[in-house]
Fold:
Amino acid sequence: MPDSHDHRPEFMVTLGLAPPYAIEDVMQAYREKARATHPDRGGSTEAFNAVHQAFERAQAYLEFRQDRRGWIAGKMARYAALQDAIARLEQLGATVTAYSPDWLENSYGDFAQLTEHVTTIRFADSPDATPFIDALVHSYPSLRELAALELPGCRLSDDDVMHLSIFQQLRRLDLSRTPITNRSLAVVDAIESLRDLNLEGTNVGWWAKRGATSQLARRKAADEVG
Structure:
């Protein structure tokens, strides 16, 4: 963390850079820090991930500062597509939660809104969830960062669940009180990022449910060790 007299963005501090900033310096600093913090070289996963995150933020920061008009134009198209996707899902009855990190607001001001992404979608107790699943999958390009999907009480099929495999950043999936069967559990293998799966009140057998729970628990344990 920068001290009170250090006005550099935190990600530049992590990379060990001082102004004036250049993309070449950012890339070189990233390579050096990545080597130094890599777990295979005695570093930690946490430190390595922090360096990688700082690198991504520094790239976006310089892109914005060097070509503000171009940056805004590019983000505007993505933002408009995202708002269309949100409106479409909300019209079907979903609750959509969007998020924009605080560090973006500090760096981009009012333009930070253009970088927001959807983190959580809730669609509950629908007698026919297939149209919603179709709309969700259709909107995937705008929803790549989706981390949590809640579908409690919805009438959906095993095929509907498998269509969700496209969301490779999904970490939490609530399928409670849905009529799915054991076949839906293939989604656990299909989405490696998945960590929490609610199967309460489904037609999934207890043995299959136990297997899925154990698999997700191993993933969480691996995360903690890493």
User: Anything to note?
Assistant: The beta strands are 95-99, 117-122, 148-150, 172-174, 196-198.
